[in-house]
C-alpha cells in the first residue's frame, strides 16, 4: 500500500484522539503556564514525557514540594499501566525493526486503545500504519500543549468542563470494545476494582492496582470457563 | 530552572522505562501462554478502568452530586450506540456536561 493511503487511514483512525488530545493538551499547557512555568516547559514535557497523567503529576509535584524519592515511587506506580499495555503489543510490534523504539516510547492510553481496536492491518503495512498513528497522536498532543501554553500567557481561564472530553473519549472506546467482545464482565470487574481501590488505596495507586487485580480476576474467570 | 529540567529528565526516563519493560522481558523467549489471554481481556478492562478512574474524582456527595457527569456518560453511551460516531458521541457528552455544570453551579 502507498504511504499516502496509509497516512489517510491513520488520520481517520486517529480522529477521535485528535478531538481528545487537542483540548486536553490545551488544558495542560494552559494550567502549566498559569502555575508559573515558561511556555516551553509544558511543550518539552509533551515531547519527551508524552504521558498526560505523568505530566499533570509533575505539575502537582512542583506545587506540593514532595521529596524526589516519593515522587519517583509514585511515578513508577502511575506508569505501571504502560507495562501492561506493552504485553498486549508484543506481537503487534514484533516486526517493527527501526521504528520499534519510537513505537514503544509513544505508547499512551489512547494510542494503545486505537492500535488494539482497529482491524489487524496486513503485515506489509502494519508497522507504517502504527508509526503514522503514533506520530499523529504525538503531534496532536504537542500542538494542543503549545496552543494552551501560549493561551495561558494571554487569556484568563473561562472554559470549565472541557476535561470531560477525556472521560467521553475513554467511554466511546470502551463501548466499542465491549460491543466487539460481547461481554459485560470486564465492565463489572473494572467497576468493582475501582470502587474497592478508591476505598482502600491512595488515589495514585488505584489505577495500577486495579489493572493488576482486574487482569488477575479475568484470567481466573477465563480459566474457569475453559475447564467447564 | 535546573531543578525543573532534572525533574523532566527523571520523569521522562521512568515513563519510557515502564513502556520498555515488557519488550525487554519477552523479546527473546516467547511470552508464557497466559499472556495470550491477557491480550484479549486487557483492552476492554483497561478502557473501563480509565472510564471509572476518570469519574472517581467527582465529589458525589456535594452539589451538583455528579449529575453533569452521569448525564454526560448517559448521552455518550446512547449517542454512540445509536450512531457509532466517536466524534459525535464525544462532543455531545462533553457539551451536556459543560452546560449542566454551569446550570447547576
Please give a structural write-up.
The complex is a heterodimer of chains A (228) and B (105). Chain A has 228 residues and is mainly alpha-helical. Chain A has a domain at 3-160. Helix content of chain A is 79%, strand content 0%. Chain A starts with a helix and ends with a helix. With 105 residues, chain B is mainly α. The longest helix of chain B is centred in the N-terminal third of the chain and has 25 residues, at 2-26. In chain B, 78% of the residues lie in helices and 0% in strands. Chain B has one domain (2-103). Chains A and B meet through α2, α3, α4, α5 and α6 of A and α1, α2, α3 and α4 of B.
Helicity of chain B, as a percent range: over 70%
- Shape estimate of chain B: extended
Beta content of chain A: under 5%
- State the oligomer: heterodimer
The helix/strand series of chain A, from N terminus to C terminus, equals HHHHHHHHHHH
Note the main sheet of chain A: none
Largest sheet of chain B at a glance? none
Show unreliable segments of chain A.
none
What sort of overall outline of chain A do the alpha carbons produce when their principal axes are compared? Answer: globular
Task: Considering residues with a beta carbon less than 8 A from a beta carbon on another chain, report the largest interface and each chain's count.
Answer: A-B, 85 and 61 residues
Overall average residue pLDDT of chain A: 84
Number of helices of chain A: 11
Cα radius of gyration of chain A in angstroms: 19 Å
- Find the count of extended strands of chain B (DSSP E, 2+ residues): 0
The total count of strands of chain A amounts to 0
Task: State the distance separating the first and last CA atoms of chain B.
Answer: 39 Å
Structural class, from helix and strand content of chain B?
mainly alpha
Mean pLDDT of chain B: 84
Short description:
The complex is a heterodimer of chains A (228) and B (105). Chain A contains eleven helices and no strands.
Compile the SSE list and pairings.
The complex is a heterodimer of chains A (228) and B (105).
Chain A: H1 3-13, H2 15-34, H3 40-48, H4 52-64, H5 68-89, H6 100-105, H7 109-117, H8 123-154, H9 164-181, H10 185-200, H11 203-227
Chain B: H1 2-26, H2 34-55, H3 67-83, H4 86-103
Helix pairs in contact in B: 3-4
